[in-house]
Amino acid sequence: MACLFALLLVASGEAGCMVPAPLFEEDQENSPVWVDENQLQPALLEQPVPVQRRTGGMQSFEVGEVWDDDVGDSIYLRWFVNWQSSHSIKFAETLPPNGTALRQSRPFPADFCAGDLRGLSDLVLVEAVVSDRDFLTDTLGRTVREGATMRTVSWLVKLLDVCPSPEGGGQ
Fold this sequence. Notes:
Layout: H1 2-11, E1 33-35, E2 49-52, E3 58-61, E4 65-68, E5 75-81, H2 83-86, E6 89-95, E7 102-104, E8 108-111, E9 123-131, E10 150-160
């Protein structure tokens, strides 16, 4: 009622009613998350990354530093191997806010001679998906919340030879 009276006063050139500020700030545009391609390990090449299985089949993959100007955002990383056929997450990491735009991720140690990576074909796709919003819990494993920005880094891997058996022979 007081605002209605104040509105009438404003219309007549008198004082007006103050509109209270919103309790929450409007969500500003989300800054994109990005990855420095010069820090990727192994470096992105035009040819597949060769991995010798006969010597153990280990290969470490690294995104390195991830940048997000929204210093209050957590950064979410998920690693996939041949995602199209398996839809399973091989490694996940959350980088909490640290007051700076730059965060350091951990390497993904892929052992192509262990577990479900042992029986893969000769050509393998390794992907790191980086997002500034958490992933949804769906069957795909890489869907992110509305308003998220994300980057995907992919390595094509050529698996050479065969994995040694536990007894020291071939696969």
